[in-house]
Structure formats: C-alpha cells, structure tokens
C-alpha cells in the first residue's frame, strides 16, 4: 500500500484508509467480531488510517477501536493513525442532531474520546460539523490547546467551507479537511480542493463509494429497517432509478479495465489528486481487499475525463443528505 503524508505533519497514512462508521451504525446490523477481524486484516494490508467519531454508535465505534488497539498492545498502537471527531450531539436512537463547537465542549469531548479509545493522544482530531454562531477561531484555538497539552497530534475540520479553512489555518495548521467527495458528490471541486492544495492540507474523501450505491451492490428495497440510506434522497423512488442508470455505465467502464465499480471510484480519486485520501467504509474483509487493490490502478487522463463527464453534478438525481443531515454542513 502506498502512503501519503497527512498535511504538513510527520504522519504518513495509507493512501486508502478505512472508514469505521458502519461498524457501529447507519448501514444496518453489524458484528463486533467481524469488524475486529476487518481491522486486523486492514493493518496486515498496510491500511493504518482508521476513521471514527464520537457520535458513531454514540461511543460504540471509539470503544471498538479502543478494544482493537488494546488487543495488539503498544506495537499496534504505534502502527495505527487514529482519527476521530467531535461536535455532533444526538440522543440514542435519533438521527436529528445539534452541533456544539464551544471550547468547553471541545475539551470535554476530547477527554471522553481519549477514554473510550484508551489512548493518551488522538492522532487526528476533527471538528465534525461547524456551529455557525461560534467563531472558528475559538474552536480551533481550543483544539490547538489540546495539541499543546499533548492530547491531540493533528487537527482536522469536516464539511467546512473554503473561508472557514482559510480562517482556521491562521490559528493552527489544519492537517486534514474531511468532506463527502466521490464521482457523484463533486462539491469540493468548486474551490475547497484547491484551497487544501494551496494550504498543504490533505483532503480526506468520505463516502467515496457513494455509501455503496456506486458499487452497484445495494438497492433501497433490500436495506435493513434502521439503515440510514432509506432516507437518503438519492436512494429513493425515481432518483434511485435514474442514478442506477449512471452506475450501469460505470459498470460497463469498469468492465473494460477488468476491475470493479468500487475500484474505479477509488482510483478516480487517487489519480485525480495527489493530496486526496479516500476512506471507504467496510465491515467485510472481501471488500477491504478489493478496495486496497485499487491503489495499483492507473487511469489515463482520457479515462478520468470520461468518468468526470459521466457523473457531472447535473446527471445525478437527489441531494446527498436528507434535510436533517445538512445541519452544520457549510456551503461557500
Ligand atoms: N465526516 C463526516 O461527516 C462523515 C460522514 C459519513 C462518513 N464518514 C466517514 O467516511 C467513511 C466512509 O464513508 P461511508 O462508509 O459513509 O461510505 P462508503 O465508503 O462510500 O460506502 C460504504 C458502504 O459500501 C460498502 N462497500 C465497501 N466496499 C465495497 C466494495 N468493494 N464493494 C461493494 N460494497 C462495498 C460497505 O459495505 P459493508 O459495510 O457491508 O462492508 C458500506 O455499505 C465512514 O465509515 C466514516 O468513517 C464521515
């Protein structure tokens, strides 16, 4: 597995990371033993960059990662780059959320994450969503204090605008910006990716497989009752049918290269941008292995242009979140 440097830090991460969210919530039932086996296999394959958040399973995801780290002892802890996030406050069983970016909350949330993860220091600590009425300078100031206190190594921001990134970078170097970015979610191409390149910030692409839709392996009628995708506008009704037509074209393209849709979706990100690190989520070793193999795929500029054109934003039907999910998502 090739590596990329995280921002301007000394941290080197696998160019394809592992999203751990589905191991706790949002994509139907999960099994801890299967998730732990997937994490173990990931590390064997050189995938050292694990993405979590305090809100995933309301602490379950961080505890699971903590269990994985503990099982492997000090050696394993040194191998893994742990990323987690604060800022989304939810009640058990509810998707609706409020956002808290206040300095007091940042400090308390960090202590709680350190405890659940069972580590002394979080490698990459993100603000998950912005609270509009708290100046970003105050939030990043509090995060910077955590770095100086040795509780956090690097700072990241998720779903923020270019302006917020520029303001935040004046307070403390921002190692990573994490936002949704994939063939069918292209908003970061409107300036945020360029701003990251200019500031030496890594762009971490979440949901790079379009929450599995791009892989062509999920349909809304086969989703579990508690699967969040049932409420995602792109997975519903006529939108789903229209979007499936795009995925079929992606399948035909992937066939010409004898690889899978998922592998093309990841290779598209890696070949387009040297500062992007996708973090596909999976609970399954077979998917993990397939995703890791995408690191070896080279796409020509003609192939990139073909894929760019196929998934132009105007060709995609439906918004990427239901309205409740847009709380705290900044748009420039
Ligand atoms: N910052 C944020 O606000 C934010 C928001 C969402 C997600 N994230 C992070 O980003 C990570 C990745 O995003 P995501 O999990 O939402 O979406 P994703 O990576 O686009 O898709 C994950 C889904 O794709 C399936 N999958 C994975 N590899 C596959 C393959 N090769 N073939 C077929 N299906 C495959 C997974 O199935 P299985 O689970 O069954 O393996 C899962 O259902 C998350 O885990 C989380 O850490 C961050």
Question: What do these coordinates show?
Answer:
With 332 residues, this protein is an alpha/beta fold. The protein has one domain: NADP-dependent oxidoreductase domain (TIM Barrel), CATH 3.20.20.100. Helix 5 packs parallel to helix 6. The strands form three sheets. Strands 3-4-5-8-9-10-11-12 form an eight-stranded parallel β-sheet. It has a two-stranded antiparallel sheet with strand order 1-2. The chain is built from ten helices and twelve strands. The mean pLDDT is 96. Bound molecules: NADP nicotinamide-adenine-dinucleotide phosphate (NAP). NADP nicotinamide-adenine-dinucleotide phosphate (NAP) binds next to helix 9.
Features:
332 residues; alpha/beta; TIM Barrel; 10 helices; 15% strand; binds NADP nicotinamide-adenine-dinucleotide phosphate
Write the layout of secondary structure elements.
Layout: E1 3-5, E2 12-14, E3 18-19, H1 32-44, E4 49-51, H2 60-79, E5 81-86, E6 88-90, E7 97-99, H3 103-117, E8 122-127, H4 136-148, E9 152-158, H5 162-169, E10 176-180, H6 192-199, E11 202-206, H7 237-256, H8 261-272, E12 276-278, H9 285-293, H10 301-310
Parallel strand pairs: 3-4, 4-5, 5-8, 8-9, 9-10, 10-11, 11-12
Antiparallel strand pairs: 1-2, 6-7
The structure holds NADP nicotinamide-adenine-dinucleotide phosphate.
């Amino acid at each position: 597995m090739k590596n990329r440097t995280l921002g301007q830090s000394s941290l080197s991460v696998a160019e394809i990371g592992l999203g751990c969210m589905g191991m706790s919530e949002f994509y139907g039932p999960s099994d801890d033993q299967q998730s732990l086996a997937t994490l173990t296999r990931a590390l064997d394959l050189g995938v050292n960059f694990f993405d979590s958040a305090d809100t995933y399973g309301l602490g379950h995801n961080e505890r699971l990662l903590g269990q994985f780290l503990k099982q492997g002892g000090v050696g394993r802890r040194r191998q893994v780059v742990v990323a987690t996030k604060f800022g989304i406050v939810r009640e058990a069983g509810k998707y609706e959320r409020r956002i808290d970016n206040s300095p007091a909350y940042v400090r308390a949330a960090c202590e709680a994450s350190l405890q659940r993860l069972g580590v002394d220091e979080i490698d990459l600590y993100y603000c998950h969503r912005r609270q509009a009425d708290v100046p970003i300078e105050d939030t990043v100031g509090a995060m910077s204090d955590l770095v100086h206190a040795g509780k956090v190594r690097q700072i990241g921001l998720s779903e923020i605008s270019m302006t917020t990134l520029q303001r935040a970078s004046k307070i403390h170097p921002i190692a990573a910006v994490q936002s949704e970015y994939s063939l069918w979610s292209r908003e970061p191409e409107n300036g945020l990716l360029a701003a990251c390149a200019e500031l030496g910030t890594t762009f971490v692409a979440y949901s790079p497989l379009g929450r599995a839709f791009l892989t062509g392996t999920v349909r809304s009628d086969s989703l579990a009752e508690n699967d969040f995708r049932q409420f995602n506008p792109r997975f519903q009704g006529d939108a789903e049918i229209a979007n499936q037509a795009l995925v079929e074209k992606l399948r035909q393209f992937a066939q010409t290269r004898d690889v899978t849709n998922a592998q093309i979706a990841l290779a598209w990100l890696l070949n387009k941008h040297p500062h992007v690190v996708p973090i596909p989520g999976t609970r399954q070793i077979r998917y993990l292995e397939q995703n890791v193999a995408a690191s070896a795929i080279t796409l020509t500029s003609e192939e990139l242009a073909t894929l760019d054109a196929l998934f132009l934003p105007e060709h995609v039907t439906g918004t990427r979140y239901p309205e409740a999910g847009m709380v705290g998502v900044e748009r420039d």
